Amino acid sequence: IQEPEEKKIALELLETEQAYVSRLHLLDQVFYTELMKEAKNGKTVPEEVVKMIFSNISSIYQFHAKFFLPELQKRMEDWSCNPRIGDVIQKLAPFLKMYGEYVKNFDKAVELITFWSEKSPPFQELIADIQKRKVCANLTLQHHMLEPVQRIPRYELLLKDYVRKLPPESPDRDDAEKALEMIFMVAKHSNAAIAEMERLQNLWAVYQRLGLEDDIVDPSNELIKEGPIQKISTRNNSTSEKYLFLFNNMLLYCVPKVIQVGAEFQVHLRINVDGMKVRELNDTQFPHTFLVSGKQRTLELQAR
To answer: Which residues form the PH domain (predicted)?
Structure first.
């Protein structure tokens, strides 16, 4: 007799989970453990570096090896009298939030491996040595490290398929649909973690261009717009090139630096958005002009 479609998918979930756990074992128990041992002996790189590379891989490995895989195996053994996996996946879903941290750290981890491989030949040799083993299947450490990043989307696809193939009267329908909803939320959670990381990187790049003034650097700020602007001097009817950064809480009025060493701009004036007024002007001589006024000062500016 033909196996029902949903059972095939559940089996595929189990098989990919077994392969995934052995990949996590390789990352945590082989790469991380051995690199850490050599770091402790002071032979390769600082211990901190190894910890930063592997982020929270140990927690992820323990969770899958000691909890999720055994539960799934038990389910598939009892399938004939209890054909369901939805409830187990519901228990899994909240823990997948642990992936946010790993995913967020991934690019940094790969950079660290590259940087320290160049800087410390013994570190590079140890990695190369482990990569030669049969268990690595001719793949690099970076390649293996990508697995956890791809695992949640894989759960999502398998579970979508599973729900689609379930007969309407299946005892697992409600649980499986709820589980899919939960996995979907977690997948969004790790996308949000990536988006947040990108936002912070971009923000940091802007702060570097501004020359890191303590009172400006704040991770909660949001950059809304930036660009060149002409400052109008009413005294001698001329304009000069300036640059604006608009954040959610402040407008920075800057002067581009002539010598491009270090910061790109010098902050001349900072106007808090709170209490800031903007008014368009109908100036025939200077089109597209507007006034920006803060508590201290009013600027007359011309856009392109």
So the answer is: 222-304
Distance CA 269, CA 274 (A): 15
Three-state SS at 20: helix
The CA distances from residue 284 to 10, 235, 281, in Å, are 72, 17, 9
How many CA atoms within 13 Å lie on the side-chain side of 235?
4
CATH topology of domain 223-302: PH-domain like (2.30.29)
Quote the pTM value.
Answer: 0.70
Roughly what angle, to the nearest 10 degrees, separates helices 121-131 and 98-119?
120
Topology of 5-209 in CATH? Dbl Homology Domain; Chain A (1.20.900)
Q: Look over the chain and give the mean of its residue pLDDT values, rounded to a whole number.
A: 89
* Calpha distance 100→105 (Å, rounded): 9
| pLDDT tens-digit series, residues 49-66 | 999 999 999 999 999 999
Q: Indicate whether 69 pLDDT > 90.
A: yes
